[in-house]
Amino acid sequence: MCGTRSPSPMAPATSAVCTEPRTAILLAVHGERREDASNEAVFRLVRALSDRALAAEVEAGFINGVPTIAAALDALTAARIIVYPLFASSGYFTRDRLVALIDEANREGRHIRILPPLGLDPGLPDLVVAFARNAARERGFAARASNVILLAHGSRRNSASRNDTERIAEAVRRRAVFAQVEPAFLEERPFLADTASTLSGPTVVVGLFSGEGLHGARDAPRLIVELGRDDVAYAGVVGSAPGIEDVVARSAGEAILQDIRSRTEVLSMSRLGAVRGLASNRVKGQTTG
Length: 289
What we know:
four-stranded parallel sheet, 10 strands, elongated
């Protein structure tokens, strides 16, 4: 029987605290194939989730990288799989490419549920606040006097990244922790330089990227250097932020509990139907007797 607990003060929602033997968790990640790229942060997250015993198995699969989504699914033996897309928005990769890859790799008799991506997770704004506040503290910036820029990918062809980034920015603003919170993008306006030019005073840039790949590890630091300002600090990418395991555990744990409750209700209804059927047969037998 599973109990519940809060995985951390930052992620107060309930999650399973026992191992659910029939369920696995799969982290779906974009990944990097460059020779010097590292997906170690993802594997650290896998280990952290495994340590929490939320599910019988925890694996990661990459759209670009190894193991692939198909290989990761094949390695799982559980009949039910919770997929957590470690993506910053609900764009092409989560809505189309990931779904197609999972459909291709799925096998008969296995149930797969894909959760909303990290960018839509209700726990993300608080993670961003804690991440940016810690970066400000390390640089000696007072949070109340500091600005935060949320740097995301963006796209001229798809508005998902922009829409999700603006929604996160608004949620962080509502926490009333920082002076100003504004978005910036790599592939559409406003670019980082555009947004930074509208802000004065200490500023923390948070990369809304799931991993420390090209954008998070190279593009963002380079663009910050090009600003030529010593009052702009880079926090890093949210996919590697301390506490990311709490956010994922909260959502995955809630999904597992929902699944358990759903199966329990179905089983209860089935048993009730069987009891009613047995009672009906007994009544018929007594009548005919």
